Amino acid sequence: MTARRSRLAGDAGQAFPIYITAVAALLFLALALFAVGQAGATRNGGQTAADAAALGAAEDFRDQVRKGLLDAIADGASWEDLLTGRGFDPPHDPCDQAQWFAGENDADVVSGGCVPGYLPVSFTVTVKTRKAVGKSVIPGTETKHATAKAKAVVEPRCVLDEPAPLPDPTGDGKGDDGGKGGDGGDGGEDDGGEDEKPVIDLVCEGEDITIDPERLDLFPDAKDLFSVHLAD
Fold first, then answer.
1. Contact 203, 163 (CB under 8 A)
2. CA distances from 135 to 16, 119, 213 (A)
3. Handedness of CA 189, 165, 68, 208 (dihedral sign)
4. pLDDT digits over 38-89, tens only?
5. pLDDT tens digit sequence for 202-229
């Protein structure tokens, strides 16, 4: 009986180091998974910041081009190109908004990390998180920051609704009155409306929108004229 007890005690003593090793391995695995989770959370936070920064820049550009379009119509200047959002030099750099939105999400736009693009208008933003992953069982994570990139696109929603020209019954290219008034004179007296700006008819994704230059207080919102979305 004594020999059997001694043998059992010896087996238990030999198994104890194995148990310790297994527990230590499981603990290390748990800590490693926790580190991976930390890294994933930091990376996701960086991507959220990049998305917000790119969208912020694109939306600021959209707001500025809307104002440019409104001002051009009010002044009677050429505005057709502004309807596409192209060829517009914004008074304020939209990338300033990119940095603001990145900062609100605990990140910063890296140097040269806000890049405008064209055809279509876009803003590609790269950010770096302010916080590192933190200490973990994986060496170097305490100084490891996440970087992420996002691209936001500005696309026009509207096109000019140009009515088809009236047919010329005479075939001489002068219209139905020969380019003169009905009495053969100089086309009639001036009715005083030569300074009146014509209304502008737009088709915005299948919806008709009319802009009256005399009622610019009813000018469409920027989101009605241009869409902003993230691109892959």
1. no
2. 31, 44, 62
3. positive
4. 556 668 888 999 999 999 999 999 999 999 999 999 998 888 889 888 778 8
5. 999 889 999 999 999 899 999 999 999 9
